[in-house]
Structures are given as C-alpha cells and as structure tokens.
Amino acid sequence: MQPPAADKTNPGAGIDYGLFLDCVHCGLCTASCPTYAEDGNENDSPRGRIYLMRAVTDGRLEMNHQVKRHLELCLDCRACESACPSGVQYGKLIEPFRVAMEEQSTDDRKSEDWFHRLILFGLFPYPERMRKSLWPARIAQRLGLDRLVLNSPLRRLIPSRLQRLMSLLPPLKKDPGPLPRVLPAIGKPRARVAMFTGCVADVMFRQTHWATARVLQENGCDVIVPDSQVCCGAIHYHAGASDPARELADQNLQAFDLDDVDAVLVNVAGCGSMLKDYGHHWPDARQAERERFAGKVRDVSEFLDELGLIPPQGELNITATYHDACHLAHAQQVRDQPRRLLKQIPGLKLKELPESEICCGAAGTYNLTEPDMADRLARRKWENIKKTGARVVVTANAGCLLQIARESRNQGEPLAIVHPMDLLDLSYRRQPLN
Predict the structure, then answer these.
(1) pLDDT single digits (tens) 171-205
(2) Whole-prediction pTM
(3) Which has fewest Cβ within 10 Å: 71, 251, 302, 425?
C-alpha cells in the first residue's frame, strides 16, 4: 500500500510510513506490554495500537474517542521495542502520532485542562516554583496533617488528581542545597563531564544528585553543572505539547558547552531518554545541533561502566532487588551496566526481580493522568518485589522511585527505595543505609 497524501488533519501524515510497515503483526510484543498484560485487549497491545494508527493514517478508520483512548492508555514504556524481532521503532510512531492527535483535537485537548496548565506545565518543569510550592507540604508532613486529610472525609474537598499528587509525595528531606557549578575530580582526572539535573528530580531527589556528583568525583571526573539548564521537555512532549518542549530543548542546547566535556550525564531514565531523542523529535533548522547534543548524552551508569568503576570499599550488608526503569532498559537499552556497578559494592546481595522490565505504572506523569491502570501496575510490581524477600529496591528513575515508594506505603510495608548512585555513594563514604 502506498502512504497517504500529506494531510494536516491526519495525525499520521507526518510520520515516515515505512515505520508502520516494519510491524509484521507477529504478536511477540504482546507479552511485554503492561496494558495488554493487565486487560488482554488487543487494541491495548503494541501491534493493536500500530494497526489503529495505520488505519487512521490510511483513512480506513475514523479518529474517534474510542481510538484515542486506546492510544492514550499506552505508557510509552517501549518494552515492545525490546521484544520486537523486526526492530519496530514504536516510540517513533506513538509519540509523534499522539502529539499530532493532541494538536488537531478541537474540543477535548488534555493539555488545556487546569491540571496540565497549572501543575504539569506551570509547576513541574520549574524547580524553584516547585520548591516554593512544597513548603506547605513540608509543614503538613511535620504535623501529620497530610495523612490526616487523606484519611478523612476532608479528602473529598480536594480534586482527585491533587489527591494523587499528595499521596505520591515522599517524606520531604532537608534540602542539601544546589550543586556548585564545578566539582573537581578526586585523584587523577579521567574525564570531564556535564551533569543534567532536570526539574522534578532536582526538587525531590537533590540528595541523589549530590550522591551522583560525589561518585563521579571518586572516579576521577571533573563535574560541570550548568546553571542555565532547564527541564528536558518530556513532560510537555508526552502530553502532546510539542512546541514548548522544543523551546526547552533549545535552551538546553545553549546551556551545555559540548566542546568542553566528554559527555552530558543523566541519572533520571526518563530525562535521559528524552535528551537522547532530541535529534529526531523536531526536523527543522536546528535538528543537526540537537543530534550532536543527543550524541553526547549518557546515563551515569552507562558512562561509569564504560569508564571503568573504581570499586568502592565500604560494606553494605543488605539484600536488594533492581527494578529496570522502562526508559533506561527499553528506550536506552541500558540494563547490565547498573547491575555490574552494584555488584562491586562489598556485602551487597542483589536478587533478580521477576518481571523487572514490566512498567511500575509511573511512566512520567501517567500515574497522575491514568490512575486506574497505574495502580494495577504498581500492585503487580509490589507482588513481584515481595517474591524476592528484599527490603531495598534500587531503580534509576525519579518516577519509579516515587511510584514504588507510594505503593509500599499503601501496603503498610515501607521499603528503602533508592537510586544506584545512592548506594555507591554510601559505599565510597563507608556509611550505612539508614
């Protein structure tokens, strides 16, 4: 079949039609798809969604609410890419299709509702705004008012998505302060790297940024932290707001001096995936610049594994399990590197997690916008964690850290949920995990 003629009202018109044809509908992707594993609906499987998108693109199917819901329910975890023997680039189909679907919508754009405008777009991408907005939450946590409100009839006065947001907040720790612009290598310099700090992660997990920087220093890295960097743009892009995401991307092009560093390092899987995809999201005059930037981006575990980790000496006598963040394992194909680093920590026993590569339900802001499916996947992840007997869960994405921690609180069995860099840092500093 020939690709359809260009049509600005067709959400698939701007997509390379050959990407649709790569899918031979064999179905080997279905077992890896979280939504299909949960509801068994073929329309909620990768091949089902590709069929829907292609049918809309061909003009054989109307772009109606039902079709839209099947596409919106996709977590964009890209587990299907890992499973596909034909090399289907599912992310290059679902992401631009949903962006166009949102832009062409006339009456129900989700990016224009109050929650997206005020919270997801107006608050999350701006760390200083977020920090200020969390002061009431800090006070509420100290006084126990947050649990009181969420467990009382008063919660009915709070919009459901704000309730979700409140329930996801971890115990807010003391802010260790911003990273300095330059952190010099310890010992013989081996590399010079820039560190991407992001938005939500810099507010919720700044202590992990500090841990990451210290681990890099211990491994002979000069660490540069550009102060003009901004959000990676994933929050906007995955909600269908392409232009604001591009503006943020281009600000990051200006913030990082690529000639001055060996790599741009990221410790959040979702951000890393977005940064590595800068080169193909927007085919315009700056595409080559974005491709060059994307080529410098590495996950911190990926980089340290390539560099060769200087083994830490402090013992951590704990049993942990590692959850593969979707946008690290599937989007970036980084799986073994974090495990190899963790296995070099003396005393640490690492147990494999059943269904480790199945999404926990976080998926960026999915757990705020699709709560039912997100909760089902969180419970599935929790049951698999229980099977390991581990009391420490390690994962390399801010969203996963928040999602799994929330489920552990809901189950009344709080676990330690940490980033790989947190454990490496403790081992280098010879400190226990509290």
Answers:
(1) 888 889 999 999 999 999 999 999 999 999 999 99
(2) 0.92
(3) 251
